[in-house]
Design brief:
Layout: E1 5-13, E2 16-23, E3 38-41, E4 45-49, E5 54-58, H1 61-65
Antiparallel strand pairs: 1-2, 3-4, 4-5
Length: 66
């Protein structure tokens, strides 16, 4: 795939010269995710899973806080 230069600008800002070059790139193909996962982090436990599993991990943050 060859990407062509579109425009170039030489900009003077304060003490610097900046060269901006813009390019036209093709739009990526739409992405369809295979699966999703959810994560919930609280003081008492961490819960994670998807539509098939749901796991809990108890944390010691609540006990350490007291």
């Amino acid at each position: 795939m060859r990407v062509e230069n579109r425009e170039a600008r030489l900009v003077y800002r304060g003490e610097e010269m900046v060269l901006w070059i813009s390019k036209r790139i093709p739009r990526p193909k739409p992405y369809k995710p295979r699966d999703t996962i959810a994560i919930d982090i609280n003081e008492r436990k961490i819960v994670y899973g998807d539509d098939k599993i749901n796991k809990d991990i108890v944390t010691a943050v609540d006990r350490a806080y007291k």
